[in-house]
Amino acid sequence: MKRLAENTKKWYGSRKRPGRRLKKDDITIVDTDVTKKAVVATALGNAMEWFDFGIYSYLAVIIGKVFFSGITGSLQLVYSFATFAVAFLVRPIGGMFFGMLGDKFGRKRILAVTLVLMSLATLSMGLIPGYAKIGNLAPFLLLVARLVQGFSTGGEYSGAMTYIAESSPDKKRGFLSSGLEVGTLSGYILGSGVVTILSFWLGEDKMLDWGWRLPFFIAAPMGLIGLYLRNHLEETPVFEAMKEGKHKENEKGLFRKVFLFHWPQLLKGIVLVLFFNVVDYMLLSYMPSYLSVVLGYGQSKGLLFILIVMFIMIPIVLIMGYYSDRIGSKRIIMGGLVGLIFLSIPAFKLIGSGTNLTVFFGLMILAVLLATFESTMPSMLPSLFFTEVRYVALAIAFNISVSLFGGTTPLVMAWLIKTTNNQMVPAYYIMAACLIGVLTMFFVKDTTGKALRGSAPAVEEKHEIAKILEDPHEALWWKEEKGNIEEKASELENPKN
């Protein structure tokens, strides 16, 4: 593939200094077979990482009993989810740290490093003695392991999104990027499946005694598999151009650019991640505990429900990713937001009804609507930012939002339900997040099928080039926006007297 960053540098220009016109050689022809292999490798690595991260939430009730046995009742679950939420506090730091390293040493390498860190932290959690043996040292060591997990995850997902988005043809970016969420769901499924099987096989007593440790021990061999896959990835064209010195940016200048000139997109990204992750963590992380602790369905039953739901979500995500390239990601997201505003209360009423069929139907309503975000966000979020700031800006927006709103969702729900004694609080929380999302989406430009900001068009077939050259202004749709940014930067550096 041609070097997108190198090419687009020549087009930026400004109102006073227009860049050169788009030429045939500027357009990238993407080998989709190579891209598909990259998607598979990235998604599988992502699955390994989210297996590690997910098993904590599926074992939250047991972890509360093992590490917070000095506390009684439902507060154990609150403390367990508090430790879960703490990991998200360091995610923005991890995102910025690994974002800078990714620009310096290569995205492939950093994706491998984050996977190794996650695996080691997860393995260590399975080795920590419980509160009954070492007292307060147990929750402290658990907290340290969770902080390492959070730090590594900060560079994981944003890097994976950037990698796939920059390696895909424009007209298939939605479908190919949705493969990343298939990896996330697969990791959750594997985590949930392992915990569910062990719970049925060992029973509650043995799971509480030692069985809960087994899923954490699996992290080591899975981490090695993921590491192998990621080491066989190729670098993106953008990084190759930067490595050759065509597009250098020091860390200070990069952060300055993000916060001074790209803050509108940064805010939009934060809101997009807000409603996406509130629904995601509500259904995939908190729901097993909600079903067992709040509704009293039993831990194994709750896990089995979520496991089945996630299996069904995989083809739905891929189908929606496919159609997002045809009807636009924005339309699908808006459909999901409106659906959740009107259907969250009915869904939670069905979940709380007590019968297996209605519980499953209520969960599927939430799952299908969540799939509208799962299928579109991996392509939409990277498209918010220009090539020169994409990795770091996306890492900042994603991790700040996840830290404040996504990862805290299980903790906030556990606390609010205990405080209000109202089982419908999760529905109201989702509705509020989605209402904010609807208002924000009116200001988000749908770039489905278009080149990424700051990048040349990327096509799958040579015959597409002629059509693009017929309207070069549309092909480089972002030039005016870039010109405005360059103009503001120039005025700041050379203020008028």
TrEMBL record:
Q: Where is the Major facilitator superfamily (MFS) profile domain?
A: 38-449
- Localization per record: Cell membrane
One GO term describing the cellular component: plasma membrane
Q: Specify the domain of life of the species encoding this protein.
A: Bacteria
Membrane topology, record value:
Multi-pass membrane protein
Name of a matching Pfam family? MFS_1
List keywords of the entry alphabetically.
Answer: Cell membrane, Membrane, Symport, Transmembrane, Transmembrane helix, Transport
Q: Which segments cross the bilayer?
A: 53-71, 77-98, 110-132, 185-204, 210-229, 266-284, 304-323, 332-351, 357-377, 389-415, 427-444
Cell membrane recorded as keyword: yes
The family classification in the record reads: Belongs to the major facilitator superfamily. Metabolite:H+ Symporter (MHS) family (TC 2.A.1.6) family.
PANTHER family linked: ALPHA-KETOGLUTARATE PERMEASE
Q: Name the job this protein performs.
A: May be a proton symporter involved in the uptake of osmolytes such as proline and glycine betaine.
What is the protein name stated in its UniProt record?
Putative proline/betaine transporter
Record organism: Heyndrickxia coagulans
